[in-house]
Amino acid sequence: MYDPSMRVLTVLELLQSREEVTGAELARRLEVSPRTVQRYVARLQDLGIPVQGRRGVGGAYRLKPGFQLPPLMFTSDEALALSLGLRALAHLGLHALAPAAQGAAAKLARTLPHALREHVQALEDGVQLDASPWVVGTDAALLSELLRAVRATQVVAFSYTAQTARSTTRRASVYKVVHLDGRWYAVGHCHLRRALRSFRLDRMQDVTALEETFTPPADFDAVAYLRSTLPDAPAAHGVSVWLARPPEELRGRVSGWHTEITGEAGGTRLRAQRDDLPSFAAFLLGLDCAFRVDSPPALQGIFQTLGERCRDAQAQSPQP
What we know:
Blueprint: H1 4-17, E1 21-22, H2 23-30, H3 34-46, E2 51-54, E3 60-63, H4 76-88, H5 98-111, H6 114-125, H7 140-152, E4 154-161, E5 167-180, E6 183-190, E7 195-200, E8 204-213, H8 222-228, E9 237-243, E10 259-264, E11 267-274, H9 277-286, E12 291-295, H10 297-316
Antiparallel strand pairs: 1-3, 2-3, 4-5, 4-8, 5-6, 6-7, 9-11, 9-12, 10-11
Helix pairs in contact: 1-3, 2-3, 4-5, 4-6
């Protein structure tokens, strides 16, 4: 004995396999009354499937000519989740996947019944996603190669440029790949350091999966490890600086950790919490743009000291 949902699907299967099926045959095959068959057909029509009926003696049903049933059927929530997920790719720094995401979104729209497609479009139109200027662009092909190695538990070799701008050749057993605070990280065992390490994907190059394999630790929490290596307590100094560049020109150059940025007077207002003010002063100098330090006074004092050191160094240098 069929349950009601199975009977509805059976009606659809019969309509797809035949050019036309009479109501009497459907009733006989399903062991129900002709009126119940009408309810099943109405249910298919409510789902957006174009079932056409012919009344009178020998009345029959058929699918609209040229209609091709999509390979997958989605609920409203499932379709919305897929659509928003495709749009969110642009906010993960995977810019190379933008054409693929647009193509996939177009295919999704074509597979949805008309009523559901209009519903999802209305919900999409009411959503605005703000792209953070601090998301660092990442090579999608490099990410794909890493994920294949993670799945196959293969050791990877790559060139890595550290913050000191010195490049080294590394081998690592990557356990997980993590997106955190605008950046992608590979987390695993570094064979050079013989310890657990994280690597920023935007600093990795020439990733190659090797024949060597490894056994990853069970239930490894890469996010917890990564957060444990980053400062999680408020820093000693609250910093407020105005930069003479708009936020979009500083994309990927400022850490989003304990940092707030907003557009202001044609430039950028940067508010942050920092422990190491001398390092932050060096970072500001490296941005190659004019800036004004509004607080804290200690940071202003560091720049005063740096200015005096620069003047002393210039005075002691041989004149050309």
